[in-house]
Amino acid sequence: MKNIFLFSITLLFLTSCLLLLPQTDSTPEPTPPAISPTDRSVYKDGLIPEYQNILNKLPYASMYDIKFIIADDLYHITGQETVLYTNAEDIELKEIKFRLFGNILGGEMHVAEVNVNGEVITPNYSLNDSLLTVPLKNPLQPKDTITLSMDFELEVPQSVELNYGVQAYYDDVLALAHAYPMIAVYDDEGWNAEIPPQSGDVTYADMSFFLVTVERQGGRAGRLGARDRPQRKREQANGQI
User: Fold this and answer.
1) Cα-Cα-Cα-Cα dihedral sign, residues 228, 232, 233, 237
2) What predicted TM-score, i.e. pTM, was given to this entire model?
3) Are strands 186-187 and 190-191 parallel, antiparallel or unpaired?
4) 190 φψ region: left (φ > 0), alpha (ψ -120 to 50), beta (else)
5) Residue 239 CB partners (closer than 8 Å, separation 6+)
6) According to the model, what pLDDT value does residue 146 have?
7) Residue 8's Cα: distance from chain center in Å?
């Protein structure tokens, strides 16, 4: 049985006061290596010791590697995403579905260059462009893994009228919950594909592991979810998250 959870604030919240700190020239740090379908040690240091065994208890959890680039205006985001997805079901899957929540939270999200195992695939859209369906040339068999990647763009709304402003730029605060293409849940009813009500949590997702890079145009990148635990402090010298 799969582990499924509801999470209301996905990935990160960024305050613009952090991103607007003075920037200094610095040598870019090397990009950490890409995620591996068999090696999960990259996540270990981001977990407190009593929870590190979760890496062995979720053998079929998806593994996301996401890069966000935040424009100078703070409400235009571009990004790249690679995710390793394992079929945890007892049947083959002929397609993979992604949720594009930006398109129902008052903003606008576009996806391009969708690849499956390095091959470009033309996806289909539905539910007011909030559901992206990636057809598979060869069905994904139970317990098999594929690599999906794509580029995306997001324009964040500048109001907090929808879903309590969990994805918005307002009053100098940038909130980026659900700001990436998220694989939908496949459960006993099939793919969970619907437009959720705005009065509650819009997300319903499988447990997953994340490596996240956040970069401001002209600024320096930060890495979350990999080798360092998220820090509450601010490094004002270079604006690093």
Assistant:
1) positive
2) 0.78
3) antiparallel
4) left
5) 18, 19, 21, 22, 23, 216, 219, 220
6) 97
7) 13
- Rounded to an integer, what is the distance from CA 187 to the centroid of its chain? 20
- Give the type of residue at 28: P
The answer to whether 191 and 168 are in contact (CB under 8 A) is: no
In order of 53, 77, 78, the CA distances from 215 in angstroms are 31, 10, 10
In this structure, the strands spanning 208-216 and 62-70 are parallel
Rg (CA), the chain: 18
Dig out the tokens for 191 from the structure. 């793919």
Cα gap 133→42, rounded to integer Å: 29
Contact status, residue 78 vs residue 69, Cβ threshold 8 Å? yes
| 157 C-beta neighbours (distance < 10 Å), count | 18
Q: Are 111 and 154 in contact (CB under 8 A)?
A: no
The span from the CA of 216 to the CA of 80, in Å, is 14
Query: Are the CB atoms for 11 and 212 separated by under 8 Å?
Result: yes
For the chain, give every domain's residue range: 4-8+38-66+78-154+181-224
Spatial contact of 198 and 208, defined as CB atoms under 8 Å apart: no
Sheet of 182-183, strands arranged across? 124-126, 131-140, 93-99, 182-183
Q: Confidence band (pLDDT; 50, 70, 90) for 203?
A: confident
CB 95 within 8 A of CB 136: yes
